[in-house]
Amino acid sequence: MGIFILVVILILILIYIVVTYNCLVKLNNTVKEAFATMDVYLKKRWDLVPNIVEIVKKYSKHEKDTLKKIVELRNSTYENMSANEKVDINNKLSQKISKLMAIAEAYPDLKANENFKDLSQQLAKVEEDIANSRKYYNGAVRIFNDKVQMFPSNIIAEILKFKEQKMFEASETERENVKVDL
What we know:
Oligomer: single chain
Low-confidence stretches: 177-182
Distance between the termini: 82 Å
Shape: rod-shaped
Number of strands: 0
CATH class: Mainly Alpha
Mean pLDDT: 85
Helix content: over 70%
Order of helices and strands: HHHHHHH
Number of helices: 7
């Protein structure tokens, strides 16, 4: 009878390990899918930035420092970056794009330029898509990280080398209050 109980306990532990492993794989795949969705929009923005920079260059000769930093960020090889590197570089790019759009406000001729209007509308749409996909990605990461961190699944995650994923967080400048002049 004692061996039977031991065998049942071992079978239950094995079932728990298999179920937990499958759950971790499923959640990890959801995180990858969520990042891939967000990555499409990040790449779209990545491709828009050089066009906007070129238009702004024509109008703002003394804003070279901001434009140079944006170009430097943009010249990174996007396809060869890891997911965490893409998150970091896009956080930095978001800060610079915000500054670029603020610069554009100071140039009425630039704001009136049809190409700039079109590109800034495209950029606004892409930014909205990025924000929505960020929510989905961060939700998927939270669920995955909960499973990786919570007992007893954390033991299985550690043994099977599942690691926490990085969330896509707002930068310091994105957290600042927006100043509105009326």
